[in-house]
Structures are given as C-alpha cells and as structure tokens.
C-alpha cells in the first residue's frame, strides 16, 4: 500500500489536503487493477476534522477492497463555501488520477460524518450549481456515484430546533455574522430540498438518541430521496450517542466505553452489502 498526500488548490483556499491509501495491483491478486474508491469526509462541526472518523474508517474500507481517501478540508475561521470547493476539487483529483491511483472513476463513493456528512451531501446535491460551474467544475466530475451519510447534518432548521450545547462549534458557525450572505448558504442550510433524481443512491445511518444532530436530519433526507425516486437505504439504531464513528475499540475516544456500541457496529457491513449491490463487478468484500 502506498500513502499519498495531495495538496488541494482552489480559487479560495490552498490549505486542504487529500490523503489516499492506494493498493497497488499485483499478479498474485488478479482483477484488482481498478478498484472502487471512497472519499471520507470526517466531522468536527466545521471547527476541526475528526481523526476518529478519518484514518480508522479509511483503513476499514481499504480492507474491503477500496482505494480510500480522506479529505482534510478547511474549517473555521475559514468560511463556507470554501469546504464545498475543496470537496469538488478532491472529487476531481480522484477521478483525474484514476489510472495512477488504480481506481474506477465510475465507482467513487463518498462517506461523510456529522458536519462532514453535510459536506458530502452538499457536493452530491449541489454538484451542478452555477457556483461550481463558474469555478470550472463539471457535475459529472465532482458528483459521487454513491453517497453515504453517518449522523449527518442536512437541515439547519432541525439543528436550531434541537437542544444543542450553546458552545458547540457548529452552532457557533451557523450564527456567524454575515454567513447567510455567502454563496449557496440557503441551499446548504436545507440540503434535503436540493435532492433531485440526479442525487446519487444514498446510504444513511444515525442513532435515535443523538442530541447533537437530531435523527430528523436523516429522516428528512430519506424522505426527499424517496420523493425523487432515488434509491436509498436507511438505518436508525436505537442506542448510541453522536459521533460514534466505527463504534468499536478502534475509534474509542474521550468518551471511553460510551464510544463502544455493539448494536451500531453493523453499519459498516450493511454499507458494504449495499455497495456490493450498487457496484456488483467491483469485487467488494463484506
């Protein structure tokens, strides 16, 4: 395996990086010259990029046959829509390096957690926006072939209605003066309303007790997908707090054993089974 770090340059930023875990072909494992790829967008309330939702998740998907990538996007004080541009550039670079990185450009999934889920849903639903078009991006180059969301934020209205800690970074970001005048802010604040039949097939999972990003976010997005006749798979687990990542010992964080939730760990195998149906010739193992 080769680890590559690719600096991303956009018209608004030079600070984002794309880290890839590239499995090189070998004669001992035939048929793996062009693997499926996954771009992971960790959460962190747009104030940080969570390590717990980055490398452990990338390596988990790599072990099941993927070329795995992590987007370290810009966070506060850098403002929206900079992260969206960085997500577009990351998708563009992954497909532009398809041969060099031994991947299939038509089998690129993205997986976002929490605020990273907001970013993943944004690039999936706003890929054909005039803003990105004016920046030189084509929807076909930057929209993923599959979207996966873990306890993702999609509706600012649902966030405002929840009992979010007033010191939460994401809440502070949403209240930043002038943010409502930034490009695509209105669309980004209600991503469920941006779903069309061009939105990629989507896998969603969340936990019902989540007090940071209410489960209504996942339900609203699933309802929009259903209305647009976009295939989706929705899993709401009855236990578990926000930010569980893999929900096992690999991603146990400061919350200690509260980050271990055996009832939630099946989300990974469920997502792999779903991806197998979506990319039947990709050789994905579940």
From TrEMBL:
The keyword Hydrolase applies. SUPFAM superfamilies: alpha/beta-Hydrolases. Residues 32-225 form the BD-FAE-like domain. One of its GO terms (molecular function) is hydrolase activity. Keywords: Hydrolase. It holds the Pfam family BD-FAE. It comes from the Bacteria. This is Xylan esterase lipase. It comes from Schleiferilactobacillus perolens DSM 12744.
